[in-house]
Each structure stands twice: as structure tokens, then as C-alpha cells.
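Good morning,

Both structures are done.
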Amino acid sequence: MRRYGLVALGTAGLLALSACAGEGAGSGDGGEGGGESQAPEDVLVGVAMPTQTSERWIADGEAVEAGLTEAGYEVDLQFGNDDIPTQAQQIDQMITSGADLLIIGAIDGTALTSQLEAAAAQDIPVISYDRLIRDSEDVDFYVTFDNEQVGVQQATSLLVGLGILNEDGSEGDAEGPFNIELFAGSLDDNNAHFFWQGAIDTLQPYFDDGTLTVPSGQTDIEQAATLRWQQETAQRRMEDLLTSTYSDGTELHGVLSPYDGLSRGIITALQNDGMGPSLEEGLPVVSGQDAEIASVALIDQGVQFATIFKDTRKLADQAVVTAEAYLAGEEPEANDTETYDNGVQVVPSYLLDSDIVYADNIESLLIESEYWSADEVASGVAE
């Protein structure tokens, strides 16, 4: 069973809440504090998450809510259901209802300018959660993973699956040439660009020396993009690629996929075309991201090759720690103040590390950490 316990909050952070200074959020001209400190139970934190179509975002929302609730806050958690106007309305309502701080996982990182302006007018800090909110000076902080490194890991897992590299990063025995196809995320998600850049930078030397080729010729992110990260969209594109490029018997060896939902759609298209059904039986190597339980089960079964594990419990905890700092009138800790330029400003950020999951380290990375249980891995269903 998934655990949502805090791993980063300490006694000092909780004491800071009870000593919240008058300069913090909720105590300025637009807040109810009137310059006086507020007890945690009098503080409202709005949490806006993009969708419930991905188990990852459901888990994020629940983990952030659990951490904030444990710290004593009132929490308004809303999911935007992949609809930009819905999320905008939800955030408007949070502000109207007196939110003292906002944590936002944006559907479209460019579509919330007016909401952020309204928050700034009421001295409400805004924490951008995992997806950078762009084109606004009213984003106060960003908590995320090292997204370019995630892209590096996605590409690395593909190279390992093809035998070009070994899991320890050393050179493998396979020489190629190998035919691969490239998938990217949704262009309105800033992270998709970081994932793509990290992956392409990693693969480029192998394109240059002929070890890797993309027979479809679709090598630009605009060609590879998948709107809203939809599994069905990825499946249709893979089906189209198989028809247009591989119907003459050209062999496909691997697919760069930046998210497990896309990976499962891609795998379905490949299997429906007669490939596989497993890696041992000729299924192309497919990468992934987010360690969704359905894909972890496929990795365990030898169907999907790899995924990237971003421990969202730690991300949620970091969001809570950052919220605590703002609500105590303090500056949150940042470990990156250079990378994440949102088009108007460089947003101070806290970056977390991620890991590549292969079949042989599911136990050590996912089960021993209690992210997923052995029963969940066996069934492919979260309990």
C-alpha cells in the first residue's frame, strides 16, 4: 500500500508554524490576519492539481493534502480534469475563499496569468508544483525533480535496453544500427521540453555515428509531442508510424517514451501489430516515467523495459516544507536559482533526484521503500 507519511518535516518546522510572524502570507493587506499571527488551523492552503486521469497526480494531490493536514492547515484540494478553464475557476475560487497560499500543478503553464496576478494582489504566495508556471512574475517558488536529468535517464534506459550501454553506464556489446521512434510530452507542459532536451542530448552522439536512426524522420519535439500526455493519442500516433514507416518490413527496435501512460499506449499499438508480446519475444524496448503501478507490473513481466521513479512523496513533502517557510514569514530553501527561467524571471527552485527502474531493481527501489507493495507489483493494481 502506498505510504504518504512526511519524510522532511521536523519539529522546528512545526514550531515555526505556531510562531508565524505578521509579515507572512494571510497577514498582509489582503489576508485576515491583520498583521497578527494565525494558528495553523486558521490558515487555508489551496492545492490545484491538473488531472485525475493519471494515478501519479491523484497520489500527488493526496500526499500534499495529507502533509498539510498533518501540519494543522485547512486544505482545499481540487483537480482540474485536464480542462484549463476548470482549473482557472478553481484557483479563482480558492482566492475568493481566502486562501493564504497556493500550490499549483498547472495543466497549461501559460494559462494562469490573471489568477496569479490576483494572488499577488492579496500577498498570497504561489508555489509551482512539478510543472513550471510560465510568463508570470507572480510565481514565488518551484518544487520539482531535476527534469533534464530525468530526460537523460529516459534515454539512458533506452540505450541499456538496446544493449548499447550496460546498467552501470559502461559500454555494452551491441553495435546497431538500431531503428527507434521518439515521443514527447505535451508542449504546454514546461517539463516536456526539459525531458526532451535531456533525452536528445544523450542520444545525439548515437545519431551522429549511425548507431541510432529514426526511420520516420520525426525528430522534432513538435512532431513527437503528445497533447495532454494522453495514452490514446500516443497509441494512435504509434499506429500511424507503424503504417507509414514499418509496413514494408522495416524493423523497429526501440521507442523513447517520456511517461508510462504513453508507454502503455505505444506497447498496445506494437502488440496489436503483431510484435511481442514481450521483450524476449521481439517487442521493441520502450522507456517510461512515473513508476505507475500498471507499468511497473509490465516491467516485472518483461513487457515494458524501464521507467523513471520520481518519489512523489518527497516532492509533496518538499512542497509542504516550502509552504511552512512562507507561512512563517521566512524564505524557503532553494538548491537551484539559475535553471528555471519562466520567460519573465528565474524562479527559485528545489530539485529532487530520480532513479531508473529496471526489472532487477523493482524490489530495492519500489517495494523496500514501500512506494508499491509486492502484491501491487504482481497484480498491476494499486490497493
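Second structure follows.
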Amino acid sequence: MSRLLIFGMGYTANALAARLRTEGWRVTGTTRDGRGDTLRFDDRDAVLAEMAAATHILSSVPPEGEDDPVLAAYDVQARWVGYLSSTGVYGDTGGAWVDESAPTGGGRRKARAAADAAWLARGAHVFRLPGIYGPGRSPLNKVRDGSAHRVDTSGVFSRVHVDDIVTGVIAAFDAPPGAYNLADDLPCSQNAVIEFAAELLGLAPPPFVPVESLSPMARGFHAENRRVANAKAKRVLGWRPIHPDYRFGLRALSAMTSPTPASAAPAPASSDQR
């Protein structure tokens, strides 16, 4: 039986676990507090036992300060190792296209870039992810609850549906290690996405706000513009996004009638917040 140990049972990791369990995998995950059926991250005996039994290990835990918590605590080894990273490692490209051959570490996400490099050095499959959306966590939710806004900027960004991350990670189980961008085919402004979500809901688009009014984190996001190329994942993994652009993804989400899954709830600081 294939066994996957996931460090950090956040939004994306829960979606992957749910899919693999339907295919007969045994999936175990960690959280900071060991809630539900997860292991407590610092329960070394239990975690080491699962590591020894795992055929596959994936980390979705972001850096804390300058350190990667998983690499600092455990000697990660398995037949297959993966890490959920961020396209933020590329920094600002002024809206230009960027692929896996581009330099990393020049932007605001220096700790993430260092973790990305450390996992690559261990022979991991590193998935560089842009903005993630999916059930319970999309522009539709923000427009509906009144928290969405448009920003008075011309930035261009990439994004990816959580289901496409799941299919990309699974496709990489039989692929060589290395970095892979998992992003959809149509980078665009965040304003266009918000406006389309409002249209699907039959609501007026939210107002524009100045960049200066945003939180420091949000201002940092809008200061780094890039178009993320996904050709390597398509070529090497044979991966194709189910939702090739935000219009496909939001239409699919708007057609869903099931309640928001528990996995869409905010995750603790030690888990994948992405």
C-alpha cells in the first residue's frame, strides 16, 4: 500500500489527502496541535514511525522566521519527497513571464526561497504555486461576503485552482525531482477576476481602493507582478489544468451546491496557509 505523510494539513494538503484516500492510499498528516486524526508535529516518536513507513512525504509547512520547521526538526527521507513552495520565490518581474530556470531569492520571500532551495538540494519535487483558490476560498466568497475590493493598480498575477495542484502533485509521483510551476494558462489582473466573480453572482463589482490603504502584506503582493509559465509541468508531468483559467474555475465553483468543506477553514500557523 502506498503511504503518504504530509507535514502541515492545511487547505491544499487536505484536498490532496481526500483525493488519495479515495484511491486507496493511507494518508497521515501533522498539525501543530494534533487536532482530529492528525499527529502533533513535535510528537517525535509518532512522526518518526510514520516517516519510516511512508513511501511518500510531502511538506506544506512554510518557513518560520528564517528556518524551515520540517527540515530543522526531521531528516526527511522517502522514496518520493515533495514540497509546496510559492512563485513568490521569483520576486517581481514587472509582469514578464517567468519559468523554473529563473533566479530565485531576489524578492520579499527570501525565507521561502531559501526553503525552496533546501528542499531541491534534498532531491525533492518542489511545486511553486501562485495564488490558490477553490471551494470555500475564492473570489466568489469574498464578493458574496462583502470583503472583496478592486485595487487601483495594473498588476498582473497568476493563480491556480486547488484541484489542479492535486492533479499536478499526483502526476509528479512518477516524474523526476525538481521545480515545477503549477499555474493556470491565463495570468491577469486581480480586478478582472473580482469583476467576473461579481458578474457570476449578479452583483455590482466592489469599489476600487488605493494600494496605500492595504495591509503591508497586501501591498507587498501587489508590488510583485509576474506571469508564471507552466510549460515544464505540462511537458514533464503530462499535466494539464482542469481549470485553464479563472473563468473556468469560478464557473465550476459557482455551480457547486455542496457546503464549504472543513478543509477550507483557516489552518494554524504551522500548516499550509496557502
